[in-house]
Amino acid sequence: xxxxxxxxxxxxxxxxxxxxxxxxxxxxxxxxxxxxxxxxxxxxxxxxxxxxxxxxxxxxxxxxxxxxxxxxxxxxxxxxxxxxxxxxxxxxx
Length: 93
Known about the structure:
Blueprint: E1 2-10, E2 13-22, H1 24-35, E3 45-55, H2 57-68, E4 72-74, H3 78-86
Parallel strand pairs: 2-3, 3-4
Antiparallel strand pairs: 1-2
């Protein structure tokens, strides 16, 4: 299960709280939510990731892609912090 909550939304930026699992069908849910804010007229996007309980390899790769595109992460869960450390290859794979 994945829950995405809009914490802030304005012309200056969007902040989303992401909770649960970033894997399988929930990864697509995250892609949809983020793509609405990083499309042709992007606004700064931030993700609060404190309550992520699981992320598969594809989920971590997508988060790395978001980071490369300028999405800011804050309050990152210990699990994701560790997964980012272990995902040390330059292309994120």
